[in-house]
Records
---
Amino acid sequence: MPAPSRVLAPVAAAALALALSACGSGGGSADPYGFDGAPGAAPTTLEPPAGTILTANSTAQLGTVVIDGAGWTLYRFDGDSAEPPTATCVDACAQAWPPVTAEPGAPLTVEGVAEEAVGTVTRPDGAVQITIGGWPVYRYAAETAAGATEGHGRDDRWFAVTPDGGRAEAP
């Protein structure tokens, strides 16, 4: 079981609060990302739930990966860059792989993820996206259940992200 939750230092939270607002328009769906659960359907919004929670989660198939506060597996994209952090998944890509964005003024809570590994990058659309180990992180919209990992290995470029920003590997 991961260590108890910790909220990033107020300075880090203040820095996120000053960042540009997240994109999207609040979809009203039960899913905090606006995905309605229909296979192949695109999310209606890219907004994360109020505040952002990153938690290390042990899986039988991939070892320890990072999930969000609603239990959705988070992914990194090999088309992005960690040095410097750069997000390249936009437009249709961002519909299929919604970026995990920072909500200005909301807390960023981490559990089992090193605080120093968590950062942000400004996306081409102006939204502020969470990074882990410098890698921008996303959710796979086609997954219909929290804890699913169907996005892992997709197109040999998408991988569940580990707490240090690495690619998940089978244990």
Note: The mean pLDDT is 79.
---
Amino acid sequence: MIGNDVVDLSDPESWRDACHSSFDRRVFTPEEGQSLSMDHSDVQKRWILWSAKEATYKAARRESAEVAFSPARFVVDLDRSLRGSVRYGIRRWPVRVQIDGDCVHAVVSGDEFFTGTLSGACRLRSAELRDPSEGVRQFALSSIATELGVAISDLRIEKVSRIPQLILAGEAMPVALSLSHHGAYAGFACRDPRIEKADRVSQCAAAGKATCVSLSHDASYASIAYRSHVEQGVLR
């Protein structure tokens, strides 16, 4: 299973004045809400927590259509490296959150080592902002095609029961795929058993975008692009 979520911190929806106490009470546990009120960087932290909850909901929804998005029931536990888990009921989902400038990108996997997980986030170009749903699809398709060594023209994404499905040469692939966009940013995450042996973090530029696409199969995942934010210890 896989899930992801992107938040653009520069979007007006994410600004401090756009958040109200009623939102916090509805979305966060009492402990999470208390940590927000005590943290001077609570705007950033608020959306780190939100993205982890949203990404977990997407992953859990793949397992059961009965899962309802009740944010306060998704309990986030992250360390200083922004890795940890989200608990929903008796299940704990591994999660990692990355920050690059104004982009917050959370990825959740059913595998604690993120085996065979490919993920990335990018800033959409001006033309893509008119149709960000298409923009995130093209970004995901380009990144996945490059990683798997297939032609992008042979790939497409279809929605099946509102869940994105990757199609290669007319046939559904055994790939769990999640897409997200918000404001000027888009992100994706996918899990493919064919890339389980890969173990690297790569920097690439797709279609002229400054992009970080990361592939990992063990707990040593780290990206230099995000290291400065990790070392700041955003979550205390």
Note: The chain has a mean pLDDT of 82.
---
Amino acid sequence: MEISIRTKQAYSEIDEFISLLPEEHKNKLPTKLKEFFAEEKDKQYKKNIDSSIPIKDQGLLEETLAIIALLNLQYWCESETEKQRLKEVYAKNEEKYQQMLQTEYNPNDIFKKKTSNVEKEQTHVENTQIVTYKEPLLKRIINKIKHLFKRKY
């Protein structure tokens, strides 16, 4: 299975993030997991993470933030109450995200929007009819007379 470039970049950010952690947090991670991130990362992608700036202000990829949240839940949370609280927060966030997707991509609303767009196009076509221009009567008579004189020559 091929890993996408964006995922490899996230692995690069995770590998750098892990290198900035204190030893006690590094030691809580399985060695195979650390090796996996080191092997699968994008070698050319460099993201300089500054330990003095909060993680949310680092401009990290969404995938990176998700992996950090997972590592925090799996390996760094000490108490069960903290794990339960984080699971509830993650579940609420997922629910909000699913509701947003449901309202944005609701199949019933998509078809309504499509039919309203078609109706707008039809009314627009009806309003842009070709108007034929008629010359005034006197001008038409003069043009006929000029046309008759041109034939005689």
Note: The chain has a mean pLDDT of 83.
